[in-house]
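Team,

Forwarding the record for the chain on the shared tracking sheet. I've put the sequence and predicted structure together so nobody has to dig through attachments.
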Amino acid sequence: MMVSRNAIEGVDGPAFFLDIHKKFQMLLGRLRLSPQSLIQRPDLDDLMAFVNRCSDDQYFDFVEMIFGSEHLGRFGSDAEHDRFVEDVNRLFEVDDLPYALTGFVRQEGVGNYLGMERKVLRTVAYPRIILRNSQVEHTEIIEPTLTLLTGADFKSANDEFLGALTDYRKGDYGDCLTKCGSSFESVMKVICDRKKWPYNQTDTASTLLHTIIPLTNLDPFFETPLLLIATLRNRISTAHGAGTQVKNPQGISPDTQSTQLLRRFSFLSTRRDRLGMAEDRLFAGTVDAAEGD
């Protein structure tokens, strides 16, 4: 709370938090947020009282609302907003909390200013709080994948992957599996688009892998472990109706389902030069991420 107040100060600060108060009113479906609903307190005080007593998930919603607010642009530059994200992550690390805040995703475009076209940076994805089970896993798998997905072509895949990470944090493993599978398929379709390899928008993961793997230097046996993403999605996610058979993704530990999905999703895009050259390597068709895995 103190970090947010320091980052958002000035005469527009109260208006910023009042906007968040309104969003929580709509989210929760009540006028007063704090448990003392009969006490008529100013909206700003009501928000502060609520945030001090709310559940973890509601507090995470509060943090994400701060970074996703349309009013944030009035307070500082993009660089200062990025430092704000870093400050929050440092607090998580200092308290040894198993969470991380993702960064802003910005893409260059063309805008109109005073009747003239000029290059502008548009924010296409806002920070989200995700679960960080292991610092090594987060550094070696999640962060490189998120970095790769900042490319303009990956907007759909990035949205799906961030949605999967949010579901994973909330323990909604069925939806996490569904979105991981969707993101994996989206990435493969982007590969086909960039390489001009034939495919249909309705192609499944299996069909896409049959197209991609023979055109790379990956050995054919890699198709089976990569196809496991679609198998898990089809068998135990919420992507298909369960009928009379109850699907129970909680019956498998998170590490053997969602985390394994994230690892395999990252397979084609991360490893040796995971931040700088991952995208070039992926679309050059060499995919030497297979080495050492």
